[in-house]
Amino acid sequence: MGEELIEELVAMGIWDREVLEVMSEVPREEFVPEEQKSWAYENRPLPIGFGATISQPYIVAFMTQALRLKPNHRVLEIGTGSGYQAAILSQLVSKVYSIENEPHLAVEATKRLRRLGYSNVRVKAGDGYEGWAEHSPYDGIIVTAAAPQIPHPLIIQLKKGGRLVIPVGRDEQRLQILQKTSNGLQLEGTLSVSFVPMRSDYL
Ligand code: SAH
Predict the structure, then answer these.
(1) Quick one: which of 7, 25, 161, 189 is 20 to 30 A from 148 by CA?
(2) Per the domain annotation, does 180 fall within a domain?
(3) Which residues line the pocket of ligand 1, CB cutoff 6 A?
(4) pLDDT tens digits in sequence order for the chain, 203 residues long
(5) Structural domain includes residue 153
(6) Ligand 1: distance of its center to the CA of 155 in Å?
(7) Candidates 55, 82, 90, 98; catalytic one
(8) What element of type H or E holds 130?
């Protein structure tokens, strides 16, 4: 990712050096369709088919920074889409699990991540509302589709001390950060955002 865009992220308030470094290393153009490649390094979301979008780089950076990741962490992502956010996470933690409910996108993202060498990411097709209990609890959970409320299974699957970042709302959405502390849950509202809606039988 170009130096200009990284400078823009800094100007917008992204301060985590490791997040900025990874943003500059992961080639976003590899994650967008051929006809979108010329916009890959602009600070805006892009359509990737099936009604899905690869998020704006600023939002990717903001959400990643909000997770306060450490190298030994294991992270769950809901909404693999192109696999770009998963690739960013994979460079900051030991293992990334990602769930995508559109089977074609799940297959494509799996192939892409393997081809590009992001070998610590596991993708599965399924409804992310349920989380992925098998590998829980997670140090961080990131949801990249908007839900009207925080799915309960995800709160259960979050480690104590862990953070969950999710866009909450239908038309009006706000990025929420949920922290699981020894005193209970702490919720913080942040940016107003516009994500594609989570599709689930539970909603
Ligand atoms: N993080 C992605 C962008 C996600 S767009 C990237 O970096 O490219 C939101 C994605 O969430 C879409 O691909 C959509 O199909 C998926 N999605 C919607 N509902 C879902 C659900 N219940 N479980 C898993 N994925 C879901």
Answers:
(1) 161
(2) yes
(3) 50, 52-55, 78-79, 81-82, 84-85, 99-102, 105, 127-129, 144-145, 196, 198-200
(4) 788 999 999 999 999 999 999 999 999 999 999 999 999 999 999 999 999 999 999 999 999 999 999 999 999 999 999 999 999 999 999 999 999 999 999 999 999 999 999 999 999 999 999 999 999 999 999 999 999 999 999 999 999 999 999 999 998 999 999 999 999 999 999 999 999 999 999 99
(5) yes
(6) 18
(7) 55
(8) none
Domain that holds residue 108: 3-193
Q: Measured in angstroms, how far is the CA atom of residue 54 from the centroid of ligand 1?
A: 9
* Catalytic annotation present for 38: no
Maximum CA extent, the chain = 49
Tell me which residue has tokens 């949920």: 178
Q: Let me know the angle formed at the C-alpha of 127 by 146 and 93, rounded to the nearest 5 degrees.
A: 75
Q: What is the CATH number of the domain that holds 154?
A: 3.40.50.150
Q: Are 196 and 146 in contact (CB under 8 A)?
A: yes
Index of the ligand 1 atom closest to the CA of residue 128: 23
- The model's pTM is 0.98
Integer Cα distance of 14 and 79 in angstroms: 23
